[in-house]
Amino acid sequence: SQQGEEDPQALSIQEGENATMNCSYKTSINNLQWYRQNSGRGLVHLILIRSNEREKHSGRLRVTLDTSKKSSSLLITASRAADTASYFCATDGQGGSEKLVFGKGTKLTVNP
Amino acid sequence: DTAVSQTPKYLVTQMGNDKSIKCEQNLGHDTMYWYKQDSKKFLKIMFSYNNKELIINETVPNRFSPKSPDKAHLNLHINSLELGDSAVYFCASSQSIWTFFGQGTRLTVV
Asked: Which of A21, A100, A104 to mutate against chain B (most B CBs within 10 Å)?
């Protein structure tokens, strides 16, 4: 079963606005990753944040992690139409040998 | 019922063997994928099929051959297994904005 839960399930914004997506999970983790999937294409890895990190930046992306609340957020600043995609969080549990577990994804639509 | 199911969940086999991992989705989706979770836990796409037709074929050794008998199934056959093939393999299916993942198959080649 998928332990990650992204919200909102769907988000529609105008170009230039910021988009925030959240992910919650249930068990202790080593890392949390965010992926993007364009319609009909495969997942593209965006960013990984380790359990001992609280915030990470990559270009227009900002990811936060709150292990006490078992949640993460992905912020895309100054959004572009090309950011339109589904975004997934994935966690891997402590123990070293556990598989990635995916949330259901947030569908982001950026309107030009 | 599980939306995307892949079997087996765990597979231990010797080098040189041929093995298959099966994937079935009961969602009526047109597109199915195989991903490999590498040692750093990153997911990389291997193949994508849409309505039984190969759409994406990333740089994967030709020992890996996907087979889609119908749009609800996408099986992954691996010939002459090597130690480096040890990984977790995920199947997924998608339609429109929704993508669902299987629980993964941990393949260990010894």
From this structure: A100
Asked if B45 reaches chain A (Cβ–Cβ under 8 Å), the answer is yes
pLDDT digit string, tens, across residues B36-88: 987 777 788 898 888 888 887 877 899 999 999 998 999 999 999 999 999 99
What DSSP line would sit under B1-70, residue for residue?
--SEEEE-SEEEE-TT--EEEEEEE-S--SEEEEEEE-TTS-EEEEEEEETTEEEEE-S--TTEEEE-SS
Token output for B2: 């599980």
Rounded Cα gap, residues A18 and A26, in angstroms:
27
pLDDT digits (tens, 9 = 90+) for A53-85: 999 999 999 999 999 999 999 999 999 999 999
Which residues of chain A approach chain B closer than 8 Å at the C-beta? Answer: 1-2, 10, 30-31, 33, 35, 37, 39-43, 45, 48, 86, 88, 90, 92, 97, 99-100, 102, 104-105, 107
Q: What is the pLDDT of residues B33-42, one digit of tens each?
A: 999 987 777 7
